[in-house]
């Protein structure tokens, strides 16, 4: 059901809206975690390294899908909050058309450059073939990734966070079962892992888009709806392009870091592949909660209720910190057990490097969660310049420090780059949030 986020106590509204989003991203991440888990358990350490190695490149494509998601979601949220349903539908249809074109271009680029991208990150020869095979199949499924992300953005903009949760819960559970069937039953190797994800994401996408169409049909509008509007595209692009650049540069940064890690050997690559999946589960979850803050902020700004945004930030930080406590405790107390979930009889180097990454990163989840909450508000308020400055500062620091510190302390030096980048980015995001919301309030008054 569609929900107005401009009424009710901000803390209560955010908990009800964001908890299903949190559950959704947990299931979304199960796709990638299941791939690594099945690869490591049923195929071997090299297969785990291959899937993890390819994952850093898939983040480039995810960046574009995420940008389309957030661009559409913020604009639709503002129009829904203002009850301008006609322009809202125009914005949705415009996003779908241009996202389809963008997706086609990315597929052509990806298919033609798989091998080159893997060479750029110094992919070890032992895992090159499997990495390329996994990446190729992943690229074939890009239309499902794009349109599913847009569908979830539309649901969130309309205040509905439960529908995507149901889709993901079913499809992610199915993905795990099909992963095991293809790999253990049909002995398809890494290709089985990739095809399982392809099939499950495809079903989720088709179901989600059909529900979106029914939901839009139920919203009454007067007059003819413009299917494609350059004016709407410009407004969406103002939000989408910085988001794509942000995620894209993060992906490029991660690829550079992956190259540094690959030079440390397959053992460190495997350990990192396991620990970064656990790390990304947390970061992506907080990013999704930040997206919820974007929807909340955009609806309230669209309705001219800027004062509710400040209360929302306080409630958002409280919410993510409550979620941080059990996660940090789990990662610190059970790091070794969690790494062994991904690898049967891991080498000493793979186990040690993966565990130490979690030990270093986990305590700083309290810091990065504040940054991502503030970032969500900056996006929802249209403060994209400040959002990008904070994000790029974090990224540049992590990449530069990884290159520098690896020469001083090996892979431990690489791991230490994360907390430094996160802390600096958090300080900037909070400062920009405070300044940005005051500016928006002045414009609205």
Largest sheet: none
Low-confidence stretches: none
Pattern of helices and strands: HHHHHHHHHHHHHHH
The coarse silhouette is globular
Average pLDDT confidence is 84
What structural class should be given to the helix and strand makeup? mainly alpha
Percent of residues in helices comes to: over 70%
How large is the share of residues in beta strands?
under 5%
What is the tally of beta strands? 0
Query: How many individual helices?
Result: 15
Radius of gyration from the CA trace?
21 Å
First-residue to last-residue Cα separation: 32 Å
Assembly state here?
A: single chain
Could you explain how this protein is built, in words?
The chain has 445 residues and is mainly alpha-helical. Helix content is 87%, strand content 0%. The longest helix is centred in the first third of the chain and has 37 residues, at 45-81. It starts with 9 loop residues before the first helix and ends with a helix.
Question: What descriptive keywords fit this protein?
Answer:
single chain; 15 helices; mainly alpha
Topology (SSEs and partners):
Blueprint: H1 10-43, H2 45-81, H3 85-120, H4 125-140, H5 142-157, H6 162-185, H7 189-217, H8 230-262, H9 266-302, H10 307-333, H11 335-340, H12 348-361, H13 365-380, H14 384-409, H15 411-444
């Amino acid at each position: 059901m569609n929900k107005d986020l401009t009424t009710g106590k901000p803390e209560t509204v955010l908990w009800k809206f964001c908890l299903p989003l949190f559950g959704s991203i947990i299931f979304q991440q199960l796709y990638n975690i299941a791939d690594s888990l099945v690869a490591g358990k049923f195929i071997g350490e090299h297969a785990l390294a291959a899937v993890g190695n390819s994952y850093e490149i898939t983040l480039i494509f995810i960046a574009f899908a995420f940008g389309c998601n957030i661009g559409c979601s913020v604009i639709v949220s503002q129009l829904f909050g203002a009850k301008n349903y006609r322009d809202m539908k125009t914005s949705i249809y415009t996003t779908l058309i241009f996202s389809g074109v963008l997706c086609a271009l990315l597929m052509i680029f990806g298919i033609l450059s798989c091998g080159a991208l893997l060479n750029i990150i110094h992919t070890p020869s032992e895992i090159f073939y499997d990495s390329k095979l996994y990446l190729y199949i992943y690229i074939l499924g890009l239309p499902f990734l794009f349109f599913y992300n847009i569908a979830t953005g539309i649901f969130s903009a309309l205040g509905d966070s439960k529908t995507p949760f149901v889709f993901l819960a079913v499809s992610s559970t199915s993905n795990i079962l099909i992963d095991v069937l293809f790999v253990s039953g049909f002995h398809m190797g890494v290709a089985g892992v990739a095809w399982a994800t392809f099939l499950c994401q495809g079903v989720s996408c088709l179901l989600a888009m059909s529900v979106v169409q029914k939901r839009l049909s139920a919203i009454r509008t007067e007059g003819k709806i413009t299917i494609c509007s350059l004016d709407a595209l410009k407004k969406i692009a103002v939000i989408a392009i910085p988001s794509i650049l942000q995620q894209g540069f993060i992906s490029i940064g991660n690829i550079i870091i992956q190259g540094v890690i690959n030079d440390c050997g397959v053992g460190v690559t495997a350990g990192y592949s396991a620990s970064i999946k656990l790390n990304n589960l947390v970061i992506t979850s907080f990013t999704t909660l930040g997206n919820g803050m974007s929807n909340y902020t955009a609806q309230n700004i669209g309705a001219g209720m800027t004062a509710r945004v400040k209360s929302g930030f306080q409630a958002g930080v409280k919410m993510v910190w409550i979620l941080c406590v059990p996660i940090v405790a789990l990662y610190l107390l059970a790091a070794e057990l969690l790494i062994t979930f991904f690898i049967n009889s891991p080498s000493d180097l793979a186990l040690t490097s993966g565990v130490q990454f979690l030990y270093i990163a986990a305590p700083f989840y309290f810091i990065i969660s504040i940054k991502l909450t503030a970032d969500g508000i900056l996006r929802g308020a249209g403060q994209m310049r400040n959002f990008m400055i904070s994000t790029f500062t974090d990224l540049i620091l992590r990449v530069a420090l990884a290159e520098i510190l690896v020469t001083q302390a090996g892979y431990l030096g690489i791991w230490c780059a994360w907390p430094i980048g996160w802390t600096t980015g958090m300080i900037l995001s909070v400062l920009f949030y405070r300044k940005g919301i005051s500016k928006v309030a002045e414009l609205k008054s």
